[in-house]
Write a structure and sequence with these properties.
The chain contains five helices and ten strands, in the order ααβββββαββαββαβ. By secondary structure, the protein is of the alpha/beta class. The protein has two domains: about 100 residues, no CATH class; about 140 residues, Glucose Oxidase, domain 1 (3-Layer(bba) Sandwich), CATH 3.50.30.30. Strands 1, 2, 3, 4, 5, 6, 7, 8, 9 and 10 form a ten-stranded mixed beta sheet that branches. The radius of gyration is 21 Å and the shape is elongated.
Length: about 260
């Protein structure tokens, strides 16, 4: 417990030493987290092969949205490109987790999709394939979508269109207007920054390399703070487990990743 608490305090410090007081991907706090985990696990290089895997991606910076000319609070969604979008809003039924949820032609439209069940990257990819100019994701819980991402690395170029995130109340308000037969138009601009972040991988030198037990978690935090519960607790638990495992021999190879 002492070792875990010490690491939790370190992660908290990484966040509070960062301008935005968090460890979101692309932040100083997250880079400090990556550096610390890598440095710590490399101390056990006789036991593990350790390397960093570069991951270029787009992080959301800001968003400005008007709905029927009215300012509406919105956040840029990570992994989606930045850009300007304007068009009529089409509500996508059934959470948008199946291609059959989408109209055959969304050319020039803005798809409004509820968050939940499947990752938002799948929803946006479907919308993009139907010609949507942009996507608005509305939350499935109270609160905004600051720091939210599409949660799935794009599998090909131009798979995603600019995407903004809004609250559940704002999304339900648009749904209500559409249900009354009103036309709803959205105009938004999202700003994104291209960065390179890193996965950290450590795999035991011992053990059957064709039979690998893989233990992993994300090393970044939510936007609202240090993220000790999401996912600092997971990251430090994985790290401490990896440290303690060095006292044992393994039959199968074991891989830890952050």
């Amino acid at each position: 417990m002492d070792a875990l608490e010490e690491k939790a305090h370190l992660f908290e410090r990484f966040a509070y030493d960062s301008p935005d007081k968090n460890r979101v991907i692309g932040s100083e706090g997250h880079q400090a987290t990556i550096d610390y985990i890598t440095k710590t696990i490399k101390k056990y290089s006789k036991y593990y092969d350790v390397y960093q895997q570069p991951m270029p991606l787009s992080v959301g910076i800001s968003a400005n949205l008007t709905v029927n000319g009215q300012d509406t609070a919105a956040d840029a969604v990570g992994l989606a490109p930045g850009g300007h979008v304007s068009g009529s809003v089409v509500a996508i039924p059934n959470l948008g987790c199946e291609e059959s949820d989408f109209p055959a032609d969304l050319k020039g439209k803005v798809a409004l999709i509820h968050r939940g069940t499947c990752v938002s990257g799948e929803k946006v990819a479907f919308a993009t394939s139907k010609g949507a100019a942009g996507v608005i994701i509305y939350n499935n819980a109270d609160g905004n979508l600051l720091g939210y991402s599409l949660q799935r690395y794009p599998t090909k170029d131009n798979e995603y269109v600019p995407t903004a995130g809004i609250t559940r109340a704002a999304g339900e308000g648009i749904i209500a207007q559409l249900g009354l037969g009103a036309e709803v138009t959205a105009d938004f601009t999202t700003n994104a920054k291209d960065i390179t972040t890193y996965n950290i991988i450590a795999q035991t030198k011992e053990g059957d390399q064709n039979n690998v037990i893989h233990i992993s978690g994300h090393s970044d935090s939510v936007a609202q703070g240090p993220g000790i519960n999401d996912n600092g607790s997971g990251s430090i638990s994985i790290l401490e487990t990896a440290i303690q495992l060095t006292h044992y021999s393994v039959k199968n190879a074991v891989r830890f990743s952050w």
